[in-house]
Amino acid sequence: MSKAMGCKRFNIFLLMLSVLAITACEGSAGWETGPTAEPTAEPTAVPSTEPTAEPTTEPSAEPTPQISVTSLHAEADFPIGVGVPAGNASNSLIDSLDRQQIVNAHFSQITAENIMKPDALHPAEDDYFWDDAVALVDYAAVNGMSVHGHTLIWHNQIPTWMSNHTGTAEQWTTMMQTHINTIVGRFADTAAVVSWNVVNEAFTDDAPSVYRNTLWFSNIGEDYFAQAFTAARAADEDADLYYNDVRLELNGSKMNRVVTMIEAFKANGTPIDGIGFQMHVSLTSPEKTAIESAFARVVNLGLKVKITEMDVTVNDDKSLSALALDTELAQAARYQEIVKAYMDAVPAAQRGGISVWGITDDDSGLPELHQRDEWPLLFNANFTPKHALQGFADGLVGGGSE
Ligand code: XIL
Question: pTM (2 decimals)?
């Protein structure tokens, strides 16, 4: 496909080499490990898309890169997705024309940020709530987008009745199968819903324990993984089924655990189509080589690779109170680097897609979670595009194997 962008492309990597060295800092960027201290400062200004000054850290002959991309998803022949607020969220996509304009122009897939999680869809054992999910799925269908279902089995955002459930392992398995069958089955004939995160965040990062001690693991045992995927496939034989987790790209014990699970599934015929890498990252960690080799491990096992929740934090050390141009360009370079790593390491047939976790910086839950200012996404709070959008697009175009 043609990936011409229609304007001169600048090499963000070269431009930002010195800037990266100054602005980057090692640190945890995930949703589980953030610092708990109070934020150091409020943002002082809405970031502007029209930069007024060159980066001051080192004079450069290069002009400031422009943001020219008009449709991000048009640059890719696989899903380019976004996690969206919906239901009664104050920033719901369904009620926000500004967000709809962005989503319709730039994305070809939607993931519900919250309203398709167990507590939202399955509020009582014999009661399912479909209205918000159906409205979102309809929105996607009408606007030519697909939906990635998130998530069926997790340890967070589960309804109270489920937490309080009692019974034998067999009874727990039956309850889980009913939950999965009913939800996946509800959307099985809905063309827009093309894939599901069947199990989310179920392994620990490090030894000694392998499995996160969720209510599923403690009540069913490790067999719940295979039972969950088997139930999902029984309910929809066409949907792609993913195991999804955070920090897999660090390529350590957790990735080894995922590989062991895939090998066991392949050996005993349990269905699985792909691995979701949440990809909550910082400017510098994990390194590109680690990301590529984690992707390669999944590719070599014949599964799809999907980046499911990408965001790039820039303020891990809490030193920033506003998003300056140099930092924004470093973030753009990081988006470009990771998207290019995906293009280089994942063959076209195994690309499940790339999704970011929110529309605007204001929509991200990271500032509240980490108690600091953050600007991790592709659009400013005032709905204007950031350099990160251009970095993402440049990674798609500059990337490797078709
Ligand atoms: C987050 C949502 O963005 C928040 O709004 C919510 O309060 C908590 O969950 N990993 C996941 C996502 O799989 O579902 C999480 O989303 C972020 C971490």
Answer: 0.88
